[in-house]
Amino acid sequence: MAWAASATSLADEVTCPICQGTLREPVTIDCGHNFCRSCLTRYCEIPGPDLGEPPNCPLCKDPFHPGSLRPNWQLANVVENIERLQLVSALGSEEEGVCQEHGEKIYYFCEDDEMQLCVECREAGAHRAHTLRFLQDAAAPYREQIEKCLKCLRKEREEIQEIQSREKKRIQVLLTQVSTKRQQVISEFARLTQFLEDQQSILLAQLESLDGDILKQQDEFDSLVAGEICRFSALIEELEEKKERPAGELLTDIRSTLIRCERRKCRKPAAVSPELGQRIRDLPKQALPLQREVKLFLEKLCFELDYEPAHISLDPQTSHPKLLLSEDHQRAQFSYKWQNSPDSPQRFDRATCVLAHNGFSEGRHTWVVSVDLAHGGSCTVGVVSEDVPRKGELRLRPEEGVWAVRLAWGFVSALDAFPIRLALEEPPQQVRVSLDYEVGWVTFANAVTHEPIYTFTASFTRKVFPFFGLWGRRSSFSLGS
């Protein structure tokens, strides 16, 4: 480009002879040469061979007076304009709409090459067969595309912001739950500690009592044994003396002496009485309350660290006519015989399902479902959104507002976007369903072995209800907590 080449040529003319850079604050000396003020000042500070002589020009060696430096304002303006032109050259163009090659204003856009053209560019042979449009006409459809992209990007950004907000709330809920659980743990362990101290005192007192009774019976035993030993020692001594006497004296009252020996009664006392022995054997029973309390403590602690029990009942207004509900609405049995149930918007008409009477829109809740399946039967348990379809086909998956697992004869499946057959140690007969509404967890576990079954993660925005499905003659389920 001609003007860019001219700017480069001018830049060579405004170079400082000392630093070889662009002139900064140019000054002119007596001989007419120009230098940077700072460069020339440093040059004058260098001492020459002849002290007191004026310095010489770095180019022509003519002497000049340092005090006669004259600022060259015109040259400074030229330097500034050259730098601006160089910057424009580096960026492409100082003004929008100017052709870099010809310096003409741009009017056209080549659709084929995606290039902006001036009149001279348009007349060039390279673009004559291409589709050319005026800039405004060419920009209009691209503006529309950009607007669509912006709309999509803004929507996605809003979704990400919503996710961020929701996850922050979820984290706060979890932190609150952890804080509450911390207080529960402290409280329960303090109560257990007090109970253990009381039980320790009771057991130690019982052991102290047993210790005293054992020592008392030991003294009684020692006294009794000592008396018996003394009696037998006297009799032995009498017989030994009798045996050494002459025959006449030995035979005197011999029959009476022998009768006394034969009729002797040796008392053989026990060191510990049966009653005391029984008390010692029964001592472990005194620790049974401790064992029961520790068990209750662990169960209560685990329960309080988990969820609140939900006291739910089946809603007959939603029950499919093939489900036979108990009078207390705690049990359902599958029946091929249709019940005389009036149709209503709330009732399932194709899926053999039923909902709980009350739903949840907050909190942490848990309930137990006991399942009794006949051969070929199945039972589905979980939660559903309140707006789940009641009429027609019901698709059991999270996208339709259903978070559930299916227990069938011999296997268990998680009804996710695609059913997942689960590998469990044993098929559960009692399933614990736990709901954390704020966090968005629906957790299933074996209520007997506590083995985890499956966990769904969701974002609840509407009320959810416990959900139950049943199929198979003689199959049934019942509720618990």
From TrEMBL:
Gene Ontology BP annotations: innate immune response
Alphabetical keyword list: Coiled coil, Cytoplasm, Metal-binding, Zinc, Zinc-finger
Top-level lineage group: Eukaryota
GO molecular function list: zinc ion binding
Domain RING-type residue range list: 16-61
Localization (cell): Cytoplasm
Any one cellular-component term (Gene Ontology): cytoplasm
Domain B box-type: 94-135
Listed InterPro entries: B30.2/SPRY, B30.2/SPRY_sf, Butyrophylin_SPRY, ConA-like_dom_sf, PRY, SPRY_dom, TRIM/RBCC, Znf_B-box
Coiled coil ranges: 143-170
Residues covered by the B30.2/SPRY domain: 292-481
A Pfam short name: SPRY
Keyword Nucleotidyltransferase: no
Family of this protein: Belongs to the TRIM/RBCC family.
Protein name stated in the entry: Tripartite motif containing 10
Organism: Propithecus coquereli
Gene of this entry: TRIM10
